């Protein structure tokens, strides 16, 4: 081999080492790097993006948060007008506490039981007819039925109260998940219609997802559950260099290849308890040398 050929091969090998994503024609020269997944750029995104909607339609009474607010699951985000439902709740509460019908039925049952006891004694002494005793037993049974009916009515009223209470609660919109409010779609005084029930957008930033588009060859080196290293820009840093390494877990590998780009979408979960990393930032994926690692157990 002459000197010119040796220089050409040396230059080609240098380019392959610096850029392992070159065309297939160079892979024969870069054969030792084929099994390595070098830095692949992607971006971070929220783990979940939730369009928070109200369960009921109506006028927005109050928005309890602002854009950028950090909320916990169950925190109040907004309330709808509930004046009418408060009145209905008061009516249901009063009906639930009304025990007049039950008290009357119990008094009637007590009277019928006493009469039956007396007639039973008289019948044993021969001073009452069997027909009178039978009638007294039937009256007691009817009185017992009236007591059961009154108690059932109270049970129904209690359920009506709980139903109205649930309707009032449904007009309070609460956070379905820990997260950050990124956009508010309605203001106080606006109407929420059934075909447009969305109040605000809530994103979950802990954990984050880092999304990458990899070639089929490199995606095949990864497994769901595998630990990988992702380099991100620290939110507290003024620079944009991807110098902060963080451990991540492969959570999703697309089962199909994008026909236009010929790449496979891969998502890596990154823990972000302190909000150190921002959504939408560039990041780079690094995988361990020597091919795919075993799944984490």
Question: What's the SSE blueprint?
Answer:
Layout: H1 3-18, E1 40-53, E2 58-63, E3 70-71, E4 76-80, H2 83-97, H3 100-125, H4 130-170, E5 172-174, E6 179-184, E7 191-192, E8 198-215, H5 216-219, E9 227-232, E10 244-253, E11 263-270, E12 282-286
Helix pairs in contact: 2-4, 3-4
Largest sheet: 6 strands, antiparallel, barrel
Query: What structural class do the secondary elements suggest?
Result: alpha+beta
Shape: elongated
Query: In CATH terms, what is the fold-level topology of the largest domain?
Result: Elongation Factor Tu (Ef-tu), domain 3
Radius of gyration: 37 Å
Gap from first CA to last CA: 52 Å
Strand order of the largest sheet: 1-8-11-10-9-12
At the first level of CATH, what is the class of the largest domain? Answer: Mainly Beta
The number of helical segments is 5
Named CATH architecture of the largest domain: Beta Barrel
* Residue share in β-strands: 25-35%
Total number of beta strands: 12
Question: Which residue ranges are poorly predicted, with pLDDT under 50 across at least 5 consecutive positions?
Answer: 1-38, 290-297
Helix amount:
25-40%
Order of helices and strands: HEEEEHHHEEEEHEEEE
Domains (count): 3
Mean pLDDT, all residues:
81
């Amino acid at each position: 081999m002459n000197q010119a050929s040796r220089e050409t091969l040396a230059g080609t090998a240098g380019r392959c080492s610096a850029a392992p994503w070159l065309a297939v024609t160079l892979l024969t020269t870069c054969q030792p790097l084929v099994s390595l997944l070098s830095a692949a750029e992607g971006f971070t995104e929220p783990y979940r993006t939730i369009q928070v909607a109200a369960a009921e339609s109506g006028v927005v009474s109050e928005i309890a948060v602002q854009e950028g607010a950090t909320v916990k699951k169950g925190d109040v985000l907004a309330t709808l007008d509930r004046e009418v439902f408060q009145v209905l709740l008061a009516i249901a509460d009063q009906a639930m506490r009304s025990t007049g019908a039950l008290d009357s039925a119990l008094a009637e049952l007590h009277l019928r039981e006493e009469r039956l006891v007396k007639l039973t004694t008289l019948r044993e002494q021969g001073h009452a007819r069997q027909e009178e005793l039978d009638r007294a037993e039937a009256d007691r049974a009817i009185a017992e039925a009236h007591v059961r009916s009154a108690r059932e009515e109270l049970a129904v009223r209690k359920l009506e109260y709980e139903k109205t209470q649930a309707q009032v609660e449904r007009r309070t919109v609460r956070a379905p998940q820990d997260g950050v409010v990124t956009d508010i779609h309605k203001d106080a005084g606006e109407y929420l219609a059934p075909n447009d029930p969305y109040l605000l957008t809530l994103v979950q930033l802990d954990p984050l997802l880092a999304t990458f588009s990899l070639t089929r060859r490199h995606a095949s080196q990864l497994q769901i559950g595998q630990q990988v290293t992702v380099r991100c820009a620290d939110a507290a840093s003024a620079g944009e260099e991807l110098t902060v390494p963080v451990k991540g877990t492969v959570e999703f590998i697309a089962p199909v290849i994008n026909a236009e780009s010929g790449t496979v979408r891969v998502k890596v979960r990154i823990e972000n308890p302190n909000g150190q990393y921002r959504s939408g930032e560039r990041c780079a994926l690094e995988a361990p040398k020597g091919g795919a690692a075993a799944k984490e157990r």
